[in-house]
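INFO batch 0412 | record 1 of 1 | parsing
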Amino acid sequence: MKVSIIVPVYNVYPYLDKCLNSLVNQTLQEIEIIIVNDGSLDKSEEIILKYLTKYKNKIKYYKKENGGLSSARNYGLKYATAPFVAFLDSDDYVLENTYELLYNKAITDDFDITICNLNYVYPNKITPINAGLNKDLVTKEEIKKNLFFTYPAVWNKLYKKDLIKKIYFKENIWYEDVEFNFRIYPLVKKVGYLDNNLIQYVQRENSIMKKVDKRLFNYIENFNGLVFYYQKNNYYKKYYFELEYSYVRYLYATFIKQLSYTNDEELFKEGLKEATYNVLKTFPNYKKNPYLKKITFKNFYLKHFSPAFAYLLHFKNKRR
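INFO prediction complete | emitting tokens
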């Protein structure tokens, strides 16, 4: 066995067949597909059992009470036996040579993580997305300057199992991918990059990324937890500027942008207040961060962030 692929399933009946079909037809034969049914209430199990009957040598199937995406991934990790681990959401799919390419790349130079590009799949178009790299990262300095700014999902990456054997997904939160990856990054020694758009990320109207409610505040909770984690494990000083820039970028840009789509004015005001308070409390001198020296629109926004900017974005987005 070369790669364990963990697939959490929860009420994705319309998408699941395409996902599983893309996995059982991988050109890499030595894979195990670990399906974790996280208490689905729809007909997802019918699809799973159809594939399990036909591909018993490739599929391991587990069923549990609903606990959320992180819980299902953690459950699947317990049963992974291959030296490399991948994750795939059950409403997405992959090209048929995805894991062969990722695995072959991973073993060429003993990479801890191998990263590929992806496509956003809309009903009427496909948009290619770069993962945030253009080369392999083989030194600690290259990893520091690049890995923290790559596409933050777990499903466009192949992980060496030894790298993540003691790190599990934080449960009962949103945006667990970012939190998981940021705890791993200080442990990484080499990163492989594939300039191939292998992951097909289906854009759903009812996905988490389209929702706005109080759970969005997990961004703030997660990054405060990461600051503590870096301090506790003596990573803080070494990765200070990377953590500082990421903290501000996610709270002032990602969090505020997504929050701006809400029509709940009180929720927006609360989120803006919380983001501003936490940034200024945790990194009061962030405007001196060296990553902000690069001239980009995002950096200009971060350096000159103000409630007025946030309200302008809110006014624009909530009417879409």
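INFO post-check: The first helix runs from residue 13 to 24.
INFO record closed
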